[in-house]
Design a protein that fits this description.
Length: 168
């Protein structure tokens, strides 16, 4: 984390709608023995149980899902625009079939807690899972939401943002 400095959640200057919805992020989970990463553009950041939290939604068929399920922490890495093609790659290919690190050239690194992130990121959120729940058809209020699903309901993770690293 040599180039990074640690900041608090209230010091994040990015607009969260642009940050998550337009810039996208890589969600990365696992450890130095094995990890996987995937692109996300749905989710949020805010306050829950008096803690700064990230809300992340992962479909169960993602390879990354297994790594999130099997570990207490994951990271969200945000990049500048020059990494758009890497994020596109990680959002369209599965780690089951391809080596995303090799193909994108991204450099994995590990936090003190052993959680994987990427050196090239401009902002890294270290997330500790607090609560996880499967979305389900019965809970849908507005019927049009069903069009996003074919039985593959996301699992929602509410995670405490325990550390934030930035280069800017
Ligand atoms: C821009 C973008 C945003 C995405 N957002 C999500 C998301 O929020 N949740 C999700 O489950 N999948 C999302 N995906 C799909 C996964 O990134 C994609 O299925 C990926 O290939 C999964 O890789 P894996 O099988 O190695 O985990 C998104 C894809 C793209 C391109």
């Amino acid at each position: 984390m040599s180039e990074f400095k640690e900041i608090s959640a209230s010091e994040i200057s990015d607009n969260p709608f642009k940050l998550i919805g337009s810039d996208w992020a890589l969600v990365t989970a696992g450890n130095s023995q094995g990890f996987n990463t995937m692109t996300v553009s749905w989710g949020g950041a805010g306050i829950m149980w008096n803690k700064p939290v990230a809300f992340t939604f992962i479909r169960p068929q993602r390879y990354t899902f297994e790594f999130i399920e099997n570990n207490g922490y994951f990271t969200m890495s945000f990049f500048d625009e020059s990494f758009r093609s890497a994020l596109n790659f990680c959002g369209t290919k599965s780690g089951r079939d391809t080596d995303k690190v090799k193909e994108t050239g991204l450099t994995p690194a590990f936090t003190e807690e052993g959680v994987p992130y990427f050196e090239e990121a401009r902002l890294v959120l270290v997330c500790k899972k607090l609560y996880a729940q499967n979305l389900n058809e019965e809970s849908i209020v507005e019927p049009s939401v069903k069009s996003f699903y074919n039985g593959d309901y996301h699992k929602m993770y509410v995670s405490e943002i325990v550390k934030i690293f930035t280069k800017s």
